[in-house]
Amino acid sequence: MSCLETLKENGLKLTPQRRLIADYFHDSGSHLTAEEIIAHVHEKMPGVNKSTIYRNLDIFESIGCVLKSESGNHVIYHHTEEGHHHHLVCIKCGKNVDCDEMLFWPVEKTLRDKYAFRVDFKHQVINGLCENCGKQP
């Protein structure tokens, strides 16, 4: 379902800023940093305040249109239609590898069984060293 439909179903207005952000998520098909989204909105609508963009991103996340996570010192967003997945990011060369969401199932099960705690691993970014960088001194 598109973000615009989800906004309408949640009784939210389809403001020009929200339409622009939603279209950008649908058209980009990739992960976007908050900075990239802000730059895109400012390119199309120069007068929009950053706080307005951040508020709208929070709304998109709260209604389930996007997932938000952190990678290094950046906040990244991706459209929920991409599904749950995780990333391994090399802190030296920046290589980014997608990994299956099943990676965390044993941890989820252990936390649930041992601590009666339900964790939600929607979109994790795991930083470390890739094989090549790990071999370098």
How would you sum up this structure in a few lines?
The protein is an alpha+beta fold. The protein has helices spanning 3-9, 16-28, 34-44, 50-62, 105-115, 131-135, and strands at residues 32-33, 66-71, 74-79, 86-90, 96-99, 125-128.
What would you note in describing this structure?
The structure is a single chain. The protein is of the alpha+beta class and 137 residues long. The protein folds into two domains: 3-82, Winged helix-like DNA-binding domain superfamily/Winged helix DNA-binding domain (Arc Repressor Mutant, subunit A, Orthogonal Bundle); 86-135, 2-Layer Sandwich (Dna Ligase, domain 1). It has six helices and six strands. A three-stranded antiparallel β-sheet has the order 1-3-2. A three-stranded mixed β-sheet has the order 5-4-6, with no helix packed on it. The radius of gyration is 17 Å and the shape is flat. The mean pLDDT is 84.
